């Protein structure tokens, strides 16, 4: 068990046993950036990413206050982020039905294009990155999520399993297939 | 190729996608103020198992804690509670006496202890345990005798038998320790101490038996106790002997000073026993003399009466017994001198560090004492025969309890003899203070 994992578990224990706000603040320091990036990849918008990140941490605190069983704090945060993002897209799609705004809102839930447009500018001319972003864009939603969680966010298989609500073996298989598909695509390119 | 793809994917993370530091700080403060409002008021959290599982899952995988450790803990708790209540029962039973409902638990626990020590292969521990249990039996006998239980003689007799059995085992174990090369002096030292304590306890038992009971069975029990007491004394001597032998063989688990102390204790107790035997015979003799004078006086007074025979016959018997006790006094005095001499020699050997010869003197002194005790017991029996009396002498006081008809209680206070002869059923009540006086009244009360 790595040192950071151990300290995360100790903080989580303090949080669960004593509802210690200090412990929660420390956990925030550890995860806020990662959660923000994770959300930002999906929503591609700073304001929305900030709102969702705040909401996620607040929901996590409530979750702990309700004494619900938690296996991993990071897992919980990613799961909550995922739900918040889904909620956001739902809101956007209903908004679209009413106002039928611009083309950007027609994009699929969790669609990589949403962040890719803003993201691409920042990475600039790195062709390598562009290639992989395009490949990810073409990848099936199911594969894309697991691959990004595993390699971009560097989560453990068990955490991804918790976030997505799937079994470990299923995650491994999806990951393997996703990588294979990505390899094929990059080979073709 | 896969590695390359993974590297590229990871590089996405390092792109400038993070939040601004300013926002992070602001959001942190906002979040903390929100949660401190909703945080539950602090209270002392008592231990609860849920926290224990949470704490455990810091180090063990969550699934292991909840699916393996938790159920295993339940099983362990059940077992602990089972064993715990057993321990509680056993510790409660330590105070129990034979005849109590918890007593079997005490004996079972003892047997378990011995069995465990036996399985472990610790012979010294087994010997030590038997010594301790023998002491327990002696104490139990003492406590039963001082109770008012109608079955106490029967129960005490059984307990004395158990004590005898323990002593037999102790003797066997001593023999084993003696013949093996292992160091066992510590256990032997323990046995010696226990044996001495048992002797003291049995002395008390004998006195209690004579004072508190007027049952014919008491006499049997008393001789049974005497027998075991002799056995215990022999064991104590044997234990010291083994200690000396082990010491001479080079066993250093018990220091030389301890061995010397043990021999010295034995010599002291030999001289004490000899003195006690002598003292008790002197006291019995005094009592018999007083009785003799009284009975002669009564016999003289009744000479002209119609039925003088009973008292006269008694007078003759008392005369005979008096002679016997006098002889016992003489021989006990003689033996006492002999014991003192032997003990002195023993102490001299001891001061010269001659352990083996000092030990021989201990044995000698004990052999003499055994003879004295036999003479004393015989004399007491004779007294019992003439007056259906049981007698015992302790320091400065003699108690003579008559079992069937006359009850005589005598105590000597310095030079003054006080004797009370209480005839419960028929004839006389004698109250003697400084000079014996006869109160020819038939009464059941006891006057001082």
UniProtKB/TrEMBL annotation, chain A:
Q: Does the record bear Transcription in its keywords? A: yes
Record has Transcription as a keyword: yes
**UniProt GO MF annotations:** DNA binding; sigma factor activity
Can you supply a Gene Ontology BP term from the record?
Answer: DNA-templated transcription initiation
Keywords noted in UniProt? DNA-binding, Sigma factor, Transcription, Transcription regulation
Q: Which domain of life is it from?
A: Bacteria
- Identify the residues that the record assigns to the RNA polymerase sigma-70 region domain, covering every copy: 27-93
InterPro entries with a match to the protein in the record: RNA_pol_sigma-70-like (IPR039425), RNA_pol_sigma-70_dom (IPR014284), RNA_pol_sigma70_r2 (IPR007627), RNA_pol_sigma70_r4_t2 (IPR013249), RNA_pol_sigma_r2 (IPR013325), RNA_pol_sigma_r3/r4-like (IPR013324), WH-like_DNA-bd_sf (IPR036388)
Cross-referenced Pfam families, in alphabetical order?
Sigma70_r2 (PF04542), Sigma70_r4_2 (PF08281)
- All copies of the RNA polymerase sigma factor 70 region 4 type domain together span 131-182
Q: Which family does it belong to?
A: Belongs to the sigma-70 factor family. ECF subfamily.
This protein's name: RNA polymerase sigma factor
Automatic annotation (TrEMBL), chain B:
Q: Does the keyword Membrane apply?
A: yes
Q: Where are the transmembrane segments?
A: 64-88
Top-level taxon of origin? Bacteria
Q: Which UniProt keywords apply?
A: Coiled coil, Membrane, Transmembrane, Transmembrane helix
Q: Which chain positions lie within coiled-coil regions? A: 153-180
Pfam families the record matches = DUF5667 (PF18915)
Where does the record place the DUF5667 domain? 96-205
Q: Could you identify this protein by its name?
A: DUF5667 domain-containing protein
Q: Which organism is it from?
A: Candidatus Magasanikbacteria bacterium RIFOXYD1_FULL_40_23
């Amino acid at each position: 068990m790595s040192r950071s994992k151990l300290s995360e578990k100790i903080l989580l224990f303090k949080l669960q046993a004593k509802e210690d706000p200090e412990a929660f603040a420390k956990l925030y320091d550890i995860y806020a950036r990662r959660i923000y990036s994770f959300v930002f990849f999906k929503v591609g918008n700073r304001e929305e990413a900030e709102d969702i990140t705040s909401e996620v941490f607040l929901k996590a605190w409530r979750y702990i206050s309700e004494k619900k069983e938690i296996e991993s704090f990071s897992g919980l945060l990613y799961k909550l982020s995922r739900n918040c993002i889904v909620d956001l897209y739902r809101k956007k799609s209903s908004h679209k039905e009413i106002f039928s705004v611009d083309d950007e809102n027609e994009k699929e839930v969790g669609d990589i294009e949403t962040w890719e447009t803003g993201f691409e500018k920042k990475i600039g001319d790195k062709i390598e990155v562009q290639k992989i972003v395009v490949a990810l864009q073409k990848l099936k939603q199911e594969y894309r999520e697991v691959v990004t969680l595993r390699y971009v966010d560097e989560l453990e298989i068990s955490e991804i399993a918790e976030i997505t609500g799937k079994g470990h073996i299923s995650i491994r298989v999806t990951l393997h297939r996703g990588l294979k598909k990505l390899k094929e695509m990059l080979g073709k390119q | 190729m896969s590695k390359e793809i993974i590297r590229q994917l990871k590089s996405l993370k390092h792109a400038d996608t993070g939040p601004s530091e300013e926002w992070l700080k602001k959001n942190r403060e906002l979040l903390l103020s929100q949660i401190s409002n909703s945080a539950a008021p602090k209270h002392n959290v008592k231990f609860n198992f849920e926290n224990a599982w949470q704490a455990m899952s810091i180090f063990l995988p969550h699934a292991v804690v909840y699916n393996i450790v938790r159920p295993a803990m339940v099983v362990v708790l059940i077992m602990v509670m089972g064993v715990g209540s057993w321990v509680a029962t056993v510790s409660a039973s330590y105070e129990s006496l034979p005849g109590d409902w918890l007593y079997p638990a005490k004996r079972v626990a003892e047997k378990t202890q011995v069995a465990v020590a036996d399985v472990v292969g610790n012979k010294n521990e087994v010997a030590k345990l038997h010594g301790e249990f023998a002491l327990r039996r002696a104490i139990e006998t003492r406590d039963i005798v001082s109770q008012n239980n109608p079955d106490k003689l029967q129960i005490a007799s059984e307990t004395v038998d158990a004590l005898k059995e323990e002593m037999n085992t102790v003797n066997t174990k001593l023999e084993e320790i003696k013949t093996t090369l292992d160091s066992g002096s510590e256990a032997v030292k323990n046995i010696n101490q226990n044996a001495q304590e048992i002797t003291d306890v049995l002395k008390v038992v004998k006195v209690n038996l004579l004072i508190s009971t007027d049952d014919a069975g008491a006499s049997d029990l008393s001789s049974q106790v005497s027998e075991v007491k002799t056995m215990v004394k022999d064991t104590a001597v044997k234990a010291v002997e083994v200690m000396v032998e082990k010491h001479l063989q080079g066993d250093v688990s018990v220091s030389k000073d301890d061995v010397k102390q043990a021999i010295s204790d034995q010599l002291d107790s030999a001289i004490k026993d000899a003195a006690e035997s002598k003292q008790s015979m002197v006291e019995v003799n005094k009592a018999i003399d007083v009785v003799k004078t009284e009975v002669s006086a009564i016999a003289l007074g009744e000479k002209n009466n119609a039925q003088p025979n009973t008292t006269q016959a008694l007078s003759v018997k008392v005369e005979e017994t008096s002679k016997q006790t006098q002889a016992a006094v003489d021989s006990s005095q003689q033996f006492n001198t002999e014991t003192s001499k032997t003990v002195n020699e023993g102490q001299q050997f001891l001061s010269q560090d001659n352990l083996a010869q000092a030990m021989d003197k201990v044995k000698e002194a004990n052999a003499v004492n055994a003879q004295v005790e036999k003479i004393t017991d015989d004399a007491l029996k004779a007294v019992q025969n003439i007056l259906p009396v049981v007698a015992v002498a302790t320091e400065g006081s003699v108690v003579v309890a008559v079992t069937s008809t006359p009850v005589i209680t005598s105590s000597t206070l310095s030079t003054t003899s006080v004797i009370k002869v209480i005839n419960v059923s028929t004839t006389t009540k004698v109250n003697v203070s400084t000079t014996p006086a006869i109160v020819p009244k038939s009464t059941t009360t006891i006057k001082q």
